[in-house]
């Protein structure tokens, strides 16, 4: 066919043709690799695929808008997706092939939506295609962004009037939507093979209707699928593609949960263990490789076992370290599993009396370790409900390594195993009723996690995927900067703000950049400094979008930076502003986003470039180096599978620590237990549950923990000398248990006989477990006489460990000092000496300010007040219930007087 006739052949005037089966326009699925065009035109599906008897051809495709002659023109079928930006709308894409400047003005586009489908007819100058041969791989082209995660379609037309028997198809691409941590739809391609011996004469098109095939053409579903899977099997081979498992392998009612035809290589490798067995499973795979799908397969496995009948007699628990992750899963799974009859509920707040009642009709629960810990500490009072949990899913299981929160996660999982063992003993059943699935992106010693989650009768299986399974290849760069010996970390962090613009210019390739900072102040300062050094506005349209978003923001500092294409995100922002930044960044309209390091475990905001600005963060009043796990989590955000084949992570650190991070990136950190640092609180909780009744049972409980596994392999980390055998290590563990039990007895939290064979909980110990109070706080209670003044009680309350997460920030001191002492304003009732300089003084000041109804405009301080009062409520309830003497009356009288 003549090149100049190719477009007319597809979009010709059909008014002169007879309506017959020989004139039907059919779409045949024949995947191929499209060469990326740079200019596109759009015509509506209604104009291209139906009779145009009432519409002149000139209104469909104007001659002046028709593309230049090219043998490689092809239509592009695209389902709408806000992230798959056309390149002429992409603020980061400024050049085409060979670095040539693209002329967006010459791109003539017109479109009309029809049934949520848009057809784009690609055009490209002939000389350009000579520079981009068809044999060139898609992932080698710098402009592949629009084509990643797509499936191609070829369009044929059978028309005797045109007198052609050519089998050369028009090539097109179908793009589908993407989701966080889901397997991205891969690019499958093959040659346009045809067979003239196929007896079938019809096929099912993309809309599910049977359409006749051209005579002599066969349905391409018989043709082997693609040889290339974008970002997972570079270069693709038939061996690789044969390893992929189709979604069609699932029963029909569950296929709509997944918006892709094949599971990726990670999911395919794990599918048999997750979907066809009840074995506990641990998976370590890179960020963005679709680990969340494994949880969904485990849920499907449970539903299949129940025959598809959904009742309220079973529970599935999803546990994640961040409330943001729970909210994300809640929104996603409610849409996916709701049509199947499953009820979902997010349970992340502090303990409420009606939590158990609300869970009666719920099937899937999203929760945090702390919340589920408080729930399961009373599981024997609600035994039937807890025993309904059939599937326990742990996201980001590497949190075990966290010194403050890891112990809670470990205790919760060990407790669920205890519940399972108790059920097995009571029912005399051989098969366990609880299955545990755990995933993470950073697990070096995954075999230890598997050993912990498994049992003697049924060991857990584990799968560890290296970086070769990353959807996007990651380049890691460490930059060292000089720092004066007497310079503080604050000043060093401040100096890095002036280096950010150069790093972005060097490594971003004009694509989205995510900058992690240690503190909220560092986040704001970094964004404010960057907008002075560089502007990230592409065109007038982009500027208008930023202006529109900025007008809706409540934070004035954020509004100022967003106008220049730079935003910031931290917990101190209003929820509306945070959501706006997330949406703007995900849509591609915010080139640079500064965020605190906690975002690495929260909402997924993937970027082409990730920068870690300084490797020290502020913890408990001092600067500490990030743990290796934290660094890996942050750099794991680099890479946008739907756009990129490669990504870059840059670590900005001191010159003297540069070598450390270069070495560390080539190795990995072992996950260790932190249970020994909080053992006394968890021992008391198990005693209250009657899990532990004497010292021998306490040692048996220790054997069910991750601590036991790691202390056997790495005793030095836990303060034990090396070279000890198993009996010697267990003896040390027994001594540790005895020491903690003695401390509990001294504060009258437990009762024991002289031989430590009988251990019972006291009422005070039960209150400690019920309200999740720290041992040091309970110890302070014993020093109360009931004669303390209100200000003395405030000082005591403010020093409780329950407020250890409340940090004093530099930019808050002026507001707090004004609340404490100011001649021209109403201040707190009991002002403190000097200036506010400790976390305890901040807690004291905010408690009094709230009771005194003093106005506080700082949103971050308002958040801290909410956090303080949630914890204070637990502490006060425990205090008031733990005294059965006249001191209680005094405390109540003092509290009442203070409240008035």
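Sequence proposed for the structure above (900 residues):
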């Amino acid at each position: 066919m003549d090149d100049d006739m190719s477009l007319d052949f597809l979009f010709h005037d059909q008014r002169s043709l007879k309506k017959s089966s020989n004139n039907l326009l059919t779409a045949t699925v024949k995947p191929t690799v499209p060469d990326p065009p740079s200019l596109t035109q759009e015509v509506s599906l209604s104009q291209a695929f139906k009779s145009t008897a009432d519409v002149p051809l000139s209104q469909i495709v104007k001659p002046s808008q028709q593309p230049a002659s090219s043998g490689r023109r092809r239509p592009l079928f695209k389902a709408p997706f806000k992230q798959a930006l056309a390149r002429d709308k992409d603020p980061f894409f400024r050049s085409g092939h060979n670095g040539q400047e693209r002329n967006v003005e010459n791109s003539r586009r017109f479109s009309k939506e029809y049934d949520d489908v848009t057809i784009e007819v690609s055009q490209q100058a002939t000389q350009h295609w000579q520079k981009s041969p068809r044999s060139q791989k898609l992932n080698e082209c710098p402009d592949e962004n629009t084509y990643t995660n797509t499936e191609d379609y070829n369009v044929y037309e059978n028309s005797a009037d045109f007198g052609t028997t050519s089998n050369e198809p028009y090539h097109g691409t179908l793009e589908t939507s993407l989701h966080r941590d889901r397997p991205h739809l891969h690019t499958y391609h093959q040659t346009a093979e045809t067979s003239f011996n196929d007896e079938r004469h019809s096929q099912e098109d993309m809309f599910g209707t049977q359409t006749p095939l051209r005579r002599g053409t066969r349905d391409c579903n018989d043709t082997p699928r693609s040889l290339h899977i974008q970002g997972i099997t570079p270069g693709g081979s038939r061996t690789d593609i044969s390893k992929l498992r189709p979604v069609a392998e699932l029963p029909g009612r569950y296929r709509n949960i997944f918006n892709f035809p094949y599971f990726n290589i990670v999911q395919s490798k794990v599918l048999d263990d997750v979907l066809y067995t009840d074995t506990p499973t641990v998976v370590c795979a890179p960020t963005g490789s679709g680990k969340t799908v494994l949880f969904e397969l485990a849920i499907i496995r449970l539903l299949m076992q129940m025959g598809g009948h959904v009742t309220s007699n079973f529970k599935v628990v999803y546990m994640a370290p961040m409330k943001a992750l729970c909210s994300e899963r809640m929104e996603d799974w409610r849409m996916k599993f709701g049509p199947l009859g499953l009820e979902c509920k997010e349970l992340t707040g502090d303990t409420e009396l009606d939590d158990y009642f609300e869970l009666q009709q719920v099937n899937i629960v999203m929760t945090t370790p702390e919340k589920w810990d408080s729930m399961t500490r009373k599981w024997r009072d609600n035994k039937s409900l807890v025993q309904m949990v059939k599937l326990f899913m742990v996201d980001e299981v590497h949190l075990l390594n966290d010194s403050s929160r890891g112990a809670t996660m470990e205790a919760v999982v060990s407790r669920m195993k205890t519940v399972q063992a108790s059920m097995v003993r009571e029912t005399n059943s051989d098969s366990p009723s609880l299955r545990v699935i755990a995933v993470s992106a950073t697990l070096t010693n995954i075999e230890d996690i598997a050993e912990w989650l498994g049992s003697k009768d049924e060991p857990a299986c584990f799968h560890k995927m290296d970086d070769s399974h990353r959807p996007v290849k990651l380049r890691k760069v460490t930059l060292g900067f000089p720092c004066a010996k007497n310079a503080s970390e604050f000043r060093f962090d401040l100096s890095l703000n002036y280096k950010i613009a150069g790093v972005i210019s060097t490594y971003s390739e004009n694509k989205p950049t995510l900058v992690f900072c240690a503190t909220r102040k560092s986040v704001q300062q970094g964004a404010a400094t960057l907008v002075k050094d560089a502007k990230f506005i592409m065109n007038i349209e982009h500027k208008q979008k930023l202006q529109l978003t900025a007008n809706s923001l409540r934070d004035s500092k954020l509004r100022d930076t967003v106008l220049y294409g730079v935003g910031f995100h931290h917990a101190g922002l209003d929820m509306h502003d945070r959501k706006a930044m997330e949406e703007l960044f995900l849509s591609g309209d915010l080139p640079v986003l500064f965020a605190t390091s906690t975002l690495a475990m929260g909402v997924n905001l993937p970027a082409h470039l990730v920068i870690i600005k300084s490797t020290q963060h502020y913890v408990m009043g001092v600067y500490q180096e990030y743990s290796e796990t934290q660094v890996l989590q942050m750099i794991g955000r680099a890479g946008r599978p739907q756009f990129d084949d490669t990504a870059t992570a840059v670590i900005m650190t001191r010159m003297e620590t540069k070598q450390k991070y270069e070495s560390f990136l080539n190795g990995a950190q072992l996950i260790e237990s932190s249970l020994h640092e909080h053992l006394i609180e968890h021992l008391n909780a198990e005693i209250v549950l009657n899990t532990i009744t004497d010292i021998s049972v306490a040692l048996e409980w220790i054997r069910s923990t991750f601590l036991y596994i790691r202390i056997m392999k790495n005793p030095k980390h836990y303060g034990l000398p090396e070279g000890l055998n198993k009996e010697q290590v267990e003896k040390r563990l027994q001594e540790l248990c005895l020491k903690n039990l003695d401390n509990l007895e001294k504060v009258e939290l437990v009762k024991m006989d002289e031989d430590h064979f009988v251990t019972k909980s006291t009422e005070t110990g039960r209150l400690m477990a019920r309200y999740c109070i720290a041992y040091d706080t309970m110890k302070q209670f014993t020093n109360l006489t009931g004669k303390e003044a209100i200000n003395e009680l405030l000082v005591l309350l403010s020093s409780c460990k329950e407020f250890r997460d409340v940090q004093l920030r530099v930019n808050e001191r002026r507001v707090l000092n004004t609340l404490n002492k100011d001649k021209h304003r109403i201040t707190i009732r009991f002002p403190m000496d000097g200036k506010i300089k400790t976390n305890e003084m901040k807690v004291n000041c905010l408690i009094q300010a709230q009771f005194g109804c003093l106005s506080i405009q700082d949103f971050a301080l308002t958040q801290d007040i909410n956090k303080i009062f949630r914890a204070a409520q637990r502490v006060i309830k425990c205090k008031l219930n733990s005294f059965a003497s006249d001191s209680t009356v005094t405390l109540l009288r003092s509290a009442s007087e203070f409240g008035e």
